[in-house]
Structures are given as C-alpha cells and as structure tokens.
C-alpha cells in the first residue's frame, strides 16, 4: 500500500509488498497545563475545550506544526482516527497492526478506543504500539481514536535533552526545545512471527573483510510458541547474487548465519566514503512447512575499522584514513529538530561532501534513521552520539542507560557509523574530579557499548575529562596559532582545554580510590571540535540580538584564510582527523559554513580544496608511521 506523498520512514528495513499507512499530517492536539486530562477522560478520546490541530511530525514549538508556541507545556495530548489497514488475507494469517513512532519526546502513554496499548520513555529513539487487541475489542467498525499522552518536562535536567534549552529563551549553544511527536508516525501490518531489526536484537556484522563473510545474528519477534523455522540470507551486488545461506532458528528465536560476500573474481567490494559499495540483503523467514512467512530487504557495506595499531592512526579497511568531519546538529529554521523532508537529510550530506568533508559528528542528537540510510548510500562517516542531560543522579543513570542502548541497537547495522560517543564535555557529569560514582558510570557506558558492539571505537566523554576511551579526543576553539600548538605533540594535546584536563586524575582517597583516566598507548588523536567562526555583519546589516561565534572573521575572504590555517595546523600535527564546528548556523549560533537556510558562506569548491590539502598532508606525514 502506498502512503500518498509520504515515503516510507524506514527505507533501511523494508518488507516487500509492505502494507503501511502514514499518519503524518493533521492530529487533534491539547495543552494539558493543569495535568487533568486523565481525570477528565482524555484517554478515551475527549480532549479538552482548548483543543487545537497540529501537523505531525513537527513539534508544537515550530512554525511548521501550525501552532508555533514557545511556552512551557509539560503535558500534551494527541488524537488521530485509526482504521484497520490489514487485508482479509493478512487478518487470516494473524498479522498484527502496529503503530510505529520514530521519536516522541519524552514519555508517552497510548490508548486506542479507550484501551491502553503501551508506553515508552526516551525522546530520541523509536518504539511500536501493538494496536491489534484493542482494535479487535471494538464493537463498532467505525474509525477508532488513537490517543497519546506525552509528558516532557522543560526544566528536568536529568532528562536527556541535548541542545534543547530549559529556559524561556534560547541562548549561547542551546536552542528551542522539542516536545511530543517529532519524527514520522505510521501504521504497518506485520506478520505474527517476523524478522526483528537492530532494535530487536538483530546484528549484521560487516567488518570481517579478511574471511570475506557477513556474520548475522537474526532475532525474531512475535509468537515463537510451537514454531520451528529457518532463516535464509541472500547477498547480491549490482543485481547479481553473491552468496546464500540458510540456517535453523533456535527455540529462543535466534539464528546465526554466515554469508559469503566475495565476488566471483574473489574480490570483495569494500565500503568507504570514496567507494560506498553496498550489498543488497534479502532475509527470508520460513515456517516448518517451508513456506516463506516474512521477508526483509536491507543493505550492508563490508568495511573494517582499526584503532589499536599503536601508531595514533585510525584505519579504514586496513589503511590509515583521515577523518575530515563536520559538526552536524540537525536543526532547521521552520521545523527545529525535525527534518523538513527525507530529501533534506540527503541534502545536508551532499552539502557537507561538496565542501570536502567525508563525514560528520552528529552532535547531541540521535538523527532520523533516513539520515543513516543516505549516509550508507552516499559514503559518509557518522559518529553516533546521544543527547546528554545536565544533572547527575540515579534517575539520570537509569534514563540514559536505557535510551543509549536503544540508540546503539537501532543504528548498529549501518556501515556508515564508525564511532560511538555517549558523553560530551562532561555534560551531566558535574564532578568528575572528585566523584568515583560519576566516573564509574562513564566506565559502565564504555563496557555496555563495547559488549554490544566490539567492532567500533568508543569516545567516552568527547572533549575532555575522559575516563575510559578508545580515542584521544579534545576540543580547542583557539585561533590557528593556538590550535597548531595543541596538535603539534601529545604534550600539547594533553594541555588543559577550557580549563579542563584531558583525562581525569587519580583519586588517592583510601576509602574510595580511583586510578584515573585511561587510553591505550598510540590511540588515535582527533580534534573533535574547533573553529566555530562567524563573519562580522556588514555596516547596516540586520542581525539578531545574541548572534555569536567562537572567532569572528571580518569577511568571507578572511574566513577562508582562517579555515586553511586551522585545517593545516591540525593536519601537520599528531592528529588523524578533525571535526569542524559547524555545518550550518542554528538560531543565534551563526558560525556555520552554511546559513540556517543552507546557503553557502564560501564557495564549496574552494573549501573542498583546502580540506583535500589537509588530507593529503596527513597521508604524506603518516606514510612512514603505519
């Protein structure tokens, strides 16, 4: 079934013959500022007297939502009519009707026709609500009301929020907050027993380029009782079958499959930003009678990462690779955190690549899955990051652990993701100097992530005060002379940045000692934030109060010269990559290479030349070291 003008929101995981319906568009909406909605029966479909309409998936704080209210509203309600989209054949086979949400910030409870259908906590990752039983309980065949109650506290600093500001007006590095539904919503008919995606535990390991095999752990979802099945995975490249393997499923609904990936000539098509070769994967689930009961189409890219070679180099496919990344925070003028369209996500990657960058650090945001779909296809490295909180306590720990693990599982199968970054600049960790508990939480995040995914490096606390990390990362917003000195030697990189040490010191307290921060000798060194240059407004040019940058250039020509000096200062030193701040302006932070509306401030082709010059400088420097 088509979804009118709406493309499918998860193009990275598609069932052939998919029966789905977009729920993006007009929903009924209600601000429940007195928190009386449950008492007044809103969960049964009767919203309050001040009912409005909102355009989903845009948050009420944005102009695109049709509401554009920047006030603090902790409890909000949504309502939308639902009809059963399943065919008679699907109903006979026991298909379930699922409402899928790519992201709702922050806590959501759902009802269908007054029947509770589930809840979820976490504003940056997706979840499903199974509507089937509640739909079957309806005596009427008319449209049934799906109702959501969403709570998003604007002032709770233990809530993972990233760059969403908790005060009335955005300022400095913090922006307009996002509440409620802010990514796509849709209905989908799925088999009773089905192939789970990464969020369900399916892991597709594409890093074994030596044996030229894909290692897959397929996790099934749904009714496993009394069902004996097998899974078949077929890989193809450019329409030609490469390998096919079929294996039995365990009673726990798991199957481990290895698929040969070498081409007939014995070569492996490797994925990289320069050659983003993707293999198509067809995954089929069979019942005990040999009938196919579910199938999924996805892609993978064969590539390996190595950060333990001891020469301060990051290796991609066995060779030193210079990561020329840009900080990308994923905001737009009319839509906030929500991309205006799927095409806008592709466009941002293309804008970045046009200036010579080969990837991004997706900063303080778990981006829409479509972004990773295009990063895979276009060849674009992504550092996966989480939105941090700003206060440390037991509530924060529980919330963050859950949502971070959900984010890693969701994105684990994308070859474009090359680093995990759970923490940034000690946000949420208010006393790493003295608190062993706070340090141990960062260590636990390292080990939790490493247990789930040993194939990627982990950047525990990007910028400074690292506790346990695979990469030595630092932030330095000094001018070219300062940055060049920082990057010239390990001693320079280890120097304090923003008055913070790079690695937490040992705590000698005999009752609760701590050994301090650790990184492997020879770990890759990367400057993961620098620059942030804005251009001074011309005389008489209109500006907003509070507009700013870390460094100010007088005009585009001076900005270009500053960029060249900064890039070369890094490339000539001990680093093997950088992350320039930033891709676009965002609200009052006007230090992007593009404006908020994605207009370039400099000729992209000229910027690309100096990125390429820095990259070549690195490769010439490291030839004798790796």
UniProtKB/TrEMBL annotation:
Glycoside hydrolase family 2 immunoglobulin-like beta-sandwich domain residues: 210-303
Residue ranges occupied by any Glycoside hydrolase family 2 catalytic domain in the UniProt entry: 341-460
Coiled-coil annotated spans: none
Gene Ontology MF terms in the entry: hydrolase activity, hydrolyzing O-glycosyl compounds
UniProt KW keywords: Glycosidase, Hydrolase
Family under the similarity heading: Belongs to the glycosyl hydrolase 2 family.
Protein known as: Glycoside hydrolase family 2 protein
Origin species: Microthyrium microscopicum
């Amino acid at each position: 079934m088509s979804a009118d003008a709406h493309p499918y929101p998860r193009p990275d995981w598609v069932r052939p013959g998919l029966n789905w319906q977009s729920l993006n568009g007009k929903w009924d909406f209600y601000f429940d500022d007195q928190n009386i909605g449950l008492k007044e029966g809103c969960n049964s479909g009767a919203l309050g007297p001040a009912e409005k309409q909102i355009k989903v998936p845009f948050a009420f704080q944005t102009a695109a939502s049709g509401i554009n209210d920047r006030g603090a509203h902790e409890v909000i309600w949504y309502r939308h009519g639902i009809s059963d989209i399943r065919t008679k054949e699907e109903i006979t086979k026991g298909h379930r009707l699922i409402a899928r949400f790519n992201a709702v910030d922050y806590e959501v409870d759902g009802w269908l026709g007054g029947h509770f259908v589930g809840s979820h906590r976490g504003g940056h990752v997706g979840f499903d609500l199974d509507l089937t039983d509640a739909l079957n309980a309806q005596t009427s065949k008319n449209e049934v009301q799906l109702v959501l109650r969403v709570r998003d506290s604007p002032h709770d600093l233990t809530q993972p929020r990233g760059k969403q500001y908790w005060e009335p007006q955005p300022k400095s590095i913090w922006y307009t907050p996002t509440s409620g539904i802010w990514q796509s919503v849709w209905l989908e008919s799925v088999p009773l027993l089905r192939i789970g995606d990464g969020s369900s535990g399916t892991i597709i390991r594409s890093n074994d380029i030596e044996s030229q095999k894909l290692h897959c752990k397929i996790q099934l979802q749904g009714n496993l009782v009394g069902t004996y099945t097998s899974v078949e995975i077929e890989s193809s490249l450019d329409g030609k079958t490469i390998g096919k393997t079929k294996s039995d499923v365990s009673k726990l609904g798991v199957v481990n499959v290895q698929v040969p990936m070498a081409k007939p000539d014995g070569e492996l098509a490797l994925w990289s930003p320069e050659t983003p070769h993707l293999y198509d994967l067809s995954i089929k689930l069979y019942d005990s009678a040999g009938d196919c009961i579910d199938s999924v189409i996805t892609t993978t890219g064969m590539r390996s990462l190595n950060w333990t070679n001891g020469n301060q180099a990051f290796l991609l496919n066995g060779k030193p690779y210079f990561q020329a990344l840009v900080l990308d925070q994923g905001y737009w003028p009319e839509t906030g955190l929500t991309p205006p369209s799927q095409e806008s996500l592709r466009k941002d990657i293309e804008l970045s690549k046009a200036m010579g960058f080969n990837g991004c650090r997706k900063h303080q945001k778990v981006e829409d899955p479509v972004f990773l779909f295009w990063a895979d296809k276009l060849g674009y490295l992504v550092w996966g990051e989480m939105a941090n909180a700003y206060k440390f306590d037991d509530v924060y720990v529980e919330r963050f652990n859950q949502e971070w693990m959900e984010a890693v599982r969701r994105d684990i199968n994308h070859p474009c993701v090359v680093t995990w970054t759970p923490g940034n600049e000690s946000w949420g960790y208010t006393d790493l100097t003295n608190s062993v508990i706070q340090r141990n939480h960062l260590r636990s995040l390292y080990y939790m992530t490493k247990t789930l995914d040993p194939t990627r490096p982990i950047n525990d606390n990007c910028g400074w005060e690292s506790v346990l990390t695979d990469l030595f990362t630092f932030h330095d917003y000094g001018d070219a002379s300062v940055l060049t000195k920082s990057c010239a030697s390990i001693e320079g990189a280890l120097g304090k940045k923003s008055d913070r040490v790079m690695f937490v010191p040992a705590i000698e307290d005999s009752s609760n000692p701590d050994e301090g921060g650790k990184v492997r000798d020879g770990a890759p060194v990367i400057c993961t934030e620098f620059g942030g240059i804005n251009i001074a407004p011309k005389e008489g040019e209109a500006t907003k109060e509070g507009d700013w940058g870390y460094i100010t250039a007088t005009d585009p020509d001076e900005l270009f010269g500053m960029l060249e000096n900064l890039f070369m200062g890094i490339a000539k030193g001990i680093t093997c990559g950088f992350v320039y701040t930033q891709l676009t302006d965002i609200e009052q932070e006007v230090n992007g290479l593009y404006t908020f509306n994605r207009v370039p401030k400099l000729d992209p082709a000229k910027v690309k030349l100096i990125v390429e010059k820095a990259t070549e400088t690195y490769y010439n420097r490291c030839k004798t070291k790796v």
